[in-house]
Amino acid sequence: MAGSRVGFPYTSRSRIEDSQLRANLRSATTAIREKRGRVVAEKADWEDLRLKGEQIRREVLSNLDSYLVKLESSVEKVGGVVHWAVDASEANQIVFSLVRQHGESEVVKVKSLTTDEMGLNEYLSQHGVMAHETDLAELIIQLAHDKPSHILVPAIHKNRSEIRDLFQRTISKGTSLSDDPAVLAEASRLYLRQKFLSAKIAVSGVNFAVAETGTICVVESEGNGRMCLTLPKVLISVMGIEKIVPTLDDLAVFLELLPRSSTGERMNPYTSLWSGVHKGDGPEEFHLVIMDNRRSAVLADPVGRQTLHCIRCSACLNVCPVYERSGGHAYDSVYPGPIGAILSPQLFDSESSKSLPWASTLCGACYEVCPVRINIPQVLVHLREKVLAEGHQSRSERFQFAILSAVLSSGARFDLALWVISRLRFLIDRFPSSGSLPGLVGKWTEARELPELPKETFRVWWRRSRGH
Ligand code: SF4
């Protein structure tokens, strides 16, 4: 998309030029991708599992209204309180009012993309409440006043020495640290332990909510989530309306699909499940905030709705050549990579998100690895059509596509165009060293190598050699 100087084509430019960033991303995503490939290959029934996962997600979305009511009743039956939020603003207000009711000014948080989507930390901070991120990578991002760049590993763009320097400036002031990961993990552990022990309220996201039993499931790798979910007296969990699974048996399917697809592990290290509150065991108060935030509109779109199948595994990011070259920040969204390219334009009404359906080569690698078989290329093309239908296209683009359409819709015109281009070879031959074309068409060669033009076109060669 063109017409404005915001959006992916502009935000990605400086990232693409940062060779260090590209090298960091390449090495991290390659390692995760290879690990995933090995554990997926061990499962002979992997494709059946994917089909099953897709089928469950379809069933849930087709009957979402009744599953939501069922979940509400199941959660209330086991002692939880359910709150409904139409958008991020209402969800933020609900969380804040719960914190205020308890007279607290600090909460501990489990890593959660949904609360990032709401801008919860910023909202709480504006109202005098400090939210402490407890996931190591999220803590790094928070201390650095940075933004996440990957769904699973938000600090993927930072290296060890940067993290050591950051810790020495913040949570380990006056201490000399090495950049050994174990030393850095210990520094964060010492800092976070105090937070876990003193916090009265924890806020989490939700990976899955089981409609039948009211059971909430959070998966994480460090155990910090488990501390948040069990130590504080009050637990507030926030979920998008789509995070439902019908039964515990259905949950089991996703607990196989998710760890293999995300961290490349056979089993997730910390999988916490709880159903309401239990005297003397864990939080005394449990609140579940269920947020729409435009998801109903996504659901109403027959092509776009499959985006809501997503289980946030991040496998699509790790295979995407565009993500690898541009990095997560170029997407200017809490949801980067291929899933961000289809989810952000549907959830956020920002100018920059409208450019995201073009942040793809449509190679299809994301579709192949997606554990719930979201046809990301199909949604990308669909969203491109929608953005263009809304008139978000520059005049020069409209002009170029009109010419292209006229040429490609007629065999005679296509032949004529090829003949004209072959006559213009001399122009291209004038710019052999720079490898770029002049004028408007020069945009094309800004990011691509100019291929050598053959002496004759395929069609001419065919006619000459076959005689027809
Ligand atoms: S779109 Fe598919 S591969 Fe990408 S994060 Fe979601 S579930 Fe994973």
Properties at a glance:
single chain; 4-stranded mixed β-sheet; 468 residues; Fumarate Reductase Iron-sulfur Protein, Chain B, domain 2; 10 strands; globular; 3 domains; Rossmann fold; alpha/beta; binds iron/sulfur cluster
Q: List the ions, cofactors and other small molecules found in this model.
A: iron/sulfur cluster
Domain count, please report it: 3
Number of strands: 10
- Side by side, the strands of the main sheet go 1-10-7-4-2-3
For the terminal residues, how far apart are their CA atoms? 41 Å
Proportion of beta-strand residues: 5-15%
Task: Summarize the model shown.
This protein is 51% helix and 10% strand.
What does this protein structure show overall?
The model has no long low-confidence stretch (mean pLDDT 92). The protein has 3 domains: 8-35 and 304-389, Fumarate Reductase Iron-sulfur Protein, Chain B, domain 2 (Orthogonal Bundle), CATH 1.10.1060; 43-293, NagB/RpiA/CoA transferase-like (Rossmann fold, 3-Layer(aba) Sandwich), CATH 3.40.50.10420; 395-466, no CATH class. Helices cover 51% and strands 10% of the residues. The chain has 468 residues and is α/β, with parallel strands linked by helices. The chain is globular, with a radius of gyration of 25 Å. The strands form 2 sheets. A 6-stranded parallel sheet has the order 1-10-7-4-2-3, with helices on both faces. The chain has a 4-stranded mixed sheet with strand order 8-5-6-9. Residues 261, 310-316, 338-339, 369-372, 374 line the site of iron/sulfur cluster (SF4).
